[in-house]
Amino acid sequence: MRSESARGGEPARAAVPMLSEEELETRPALSSRALLRQGTPEARAIVVLPERAVELQGSSEQILKLCDGARTARAVSEALRDLYPEARGLEDDVRRFIAQMCRLGVLELRSG
Question: Is pLDDT at 105 greater than 50 in this prediction?
Fold first, then answer.
């Protein structure tokens, strides 16, 4: 099993793809193949997939918890902006993070 690391709220990187404007209206949700193991003070949260484990760092766990299939990707970004109004570039960071989690199979984008 491969292990990867994911950071929420890390500085934006121009080369990292992010969700399109249309995808912002989809509802990201944890993949049916993914299991989120919440972090503790002693250990970081991880997402376990059949082929890999993804270690969550920074605000990644908080972002994933907001990706509940009820909120749109735009609403997830807005909720985080409300929590961290001083954070610059947050919306793009969230768009990149959700896109990365989709590529890794952690999240699925649902229409509707």
Answer: yes
d(CA 48, CA 92): 25
Taking the C-alpha atoms of residue 104 and residue 92, their distance in angstroms, rounded to an integer, is 18
Rounded average pLDDT over 5-13: 50
Structural domain count, the chain: 1
DSSP 2: E
Residue 91: closest CA among 80, 107, 106: 80
Flag whether the pTM goes above 0.90. no
Based on its alpha-carbon atoms, the radius of gyration of the chain, rounded to whole angstroms, reads 13
Contact in structure between 51 and 1 (CB atoms under 8 Å): yes
CATH of the domain at 75: 3.90.930.60
Q: Which residue has the tokens 């735009």?
A: 74
According to the model, what pLDDT value does residue 43 have?
84
